[in-house]
Backbone:
């Protein structure tokens, strides 16, 4: 297994371009495929469809902002003093590289199940704390920033930091199986244009109706149990030290202001008022969970745990710096969504429909969720965002189910989660959501993604078998 992983690492190092370049290449591939496969497609029509996906009426900006806010609010919450102290205590536990990898994976997987933005950054922040221990042990001097209580033992000083960050990112495989899954949340809101189940059937699916499907929970639990053993088998023998800049303060400390302005910035009751108002508004909506309420909940929790208002502002701004590469790429992927949905007339199938129909053609009631899972794997390479992805593939999946006379909420919930699971698994080889983790770790993509190929294969088997064999409830 280690030899196979080493081969994957070498392959990624040699052929994987910068993620932005990859997005440009995917745009070109999608445009060429649309012109070749879609009947009566023209270059001008494809250009208009691309424009609509980026800047037009169907642009991706509103959805992109929601995804950025989930990620940034999760990061700011993980940066709260109480959680940072907890991470420091956890960072003192492992004594070997394998123990460190298993720890960051488990923490990231559990946090991701609660909120994918929180989990995506918590694992990376914990990996940074562990690397700081190694740095302190090697230099004999404490580094700048938060301190660890215990120096790293010798078995941890040969740490491969890329492998540790890959282990943290492996926990992200639960991102669309948990409580903040974009597909599941979209199906809870009849007013959302992404609630394709309600549009087609007038059924509103509850969050737990979808997330609680055995076909979703069983492989998630299996992966969380099995991946630690796999991480042990693929651990590299060579060391990779982090960038020394990782241990420097990311920004100069801002001096506390004095006088009335400083007192207002540190006045905790201002935070309490906002938190109380948000909690009351949440209760008025009967504690329903959708994308907007998840952003609100994690923002309010971050405010409460940070205490004074200005501390949360600074943490939120620092978190926002890590999403710059993602923000740059969202318009490109919006354009790809537009190209995938491009159809010159109503009686012509778009490229997305051709892909999905081609994979699910001949499906039965039993095989449809599995085949939609496979289609999701392909489409995620071009649309690495579950909500936007569901807008492309969801209508095809739901209407195919209706053609098979399957309109029960349980079956549609399983079908929805099969698409979501394909997104989660392909994230292990599609670098879009890895970008903020790389920004936190100050690592290039090639030093991390080779290890996540193995996690992709595990997820492919676990979720694929589950959606093929476990019935809907």
Residues:
């Amino acid at each position: 297994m280690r030899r196979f992983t080493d081969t994957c690492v070498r392959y990624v190092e040699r052929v994987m371009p910068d993620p932005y370049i990859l997005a440009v290449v995917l745009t070109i591939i999608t445009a060429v495929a649309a012109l070749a496969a879609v009947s009566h497609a023209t270059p001008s029509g494809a250009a208009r469809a691309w424009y609509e996906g980026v800047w037009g009426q169907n642009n991706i900006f509103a959805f992109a902002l929601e995804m950025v806010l989930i990620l940034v609010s999760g990061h700011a919450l993980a940066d709260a003093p109480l959680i940072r102290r907890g991470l420091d205590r956890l960072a003192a536990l492992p004594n070997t590289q394998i123990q460190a990898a298993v720890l960051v994976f488990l923490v990231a997987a559990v946090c991701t199940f609660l909120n994918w933005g929180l989990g995506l950054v918590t694992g990376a922040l914990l990996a940074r704390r562990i690397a700081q221990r190694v740095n302190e042990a090697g230099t004999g001097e404490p580094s700048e920033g938060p301190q660890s209580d215990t120096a790293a033992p010798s078995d941890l000083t040969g740490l491969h930091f890329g492998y540790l960050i890959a282990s943290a990112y492996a926990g992200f495989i639960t991102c669309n199986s948990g409580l903040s899954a974009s597909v599941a949340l979209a199906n809870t809101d009849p007013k959302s244009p992404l609630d394709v189940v309600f549009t087609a059937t007038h059924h509103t699916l509850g969050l737990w109706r979808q997330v609680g499907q055995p076909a979703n929970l069983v492989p998630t639990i299996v992966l969380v149990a099995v991946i630690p053993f796999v991480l042990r088998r693929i651990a590299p023998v060579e060391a990779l030290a982090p960038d020394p800049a990782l241990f420097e303060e990311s920004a100069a400390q801002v001096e506390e202001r004095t006088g009335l302005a400083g007192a207002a910035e540190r006045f905790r009751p201002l935070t309490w008022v906002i938190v109380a108002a948000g909690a009351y508004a949440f209760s008025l909506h009967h504690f329903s969970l959708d994308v907007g309420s998840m952003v609100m909940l994690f923002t309010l929790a971050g405010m409460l745990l940070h205490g004074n208002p200005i501390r949360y502002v600074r943490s939120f701004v620092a978190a926002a710096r890590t999403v710059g590469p993602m923000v740059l790429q969202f318009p490109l992927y919006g354009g790809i969504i537009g190209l995938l949905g491009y159809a010159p007339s109503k009686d012509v199938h778009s490229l997305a429909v051709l892909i999905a129909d081609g994979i699910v053609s001949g499906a039965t009631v039993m095989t449809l969720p599995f085949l939609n899972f496979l289609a999701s794997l392909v489409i995620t390479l071009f649309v690495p965002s579950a909500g936007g992805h569901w807008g492309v593939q969801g209508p095809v999946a739901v209407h195919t189910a209706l053609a098979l006379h399957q309109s029960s909420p349980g079956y549609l919930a399983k079908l929805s989660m099969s698409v979501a699971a394909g997104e989660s698994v392909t994230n292990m080889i599609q670098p879009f959501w890895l970008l903020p983790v790389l920004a936190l770790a100050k690592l290039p993509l090639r030093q991390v993604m080779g290890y996540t190929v193995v996690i992709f294969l595990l997820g492919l088997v676990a979720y694929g078998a589950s959606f093929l064999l476990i019935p809907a409830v």
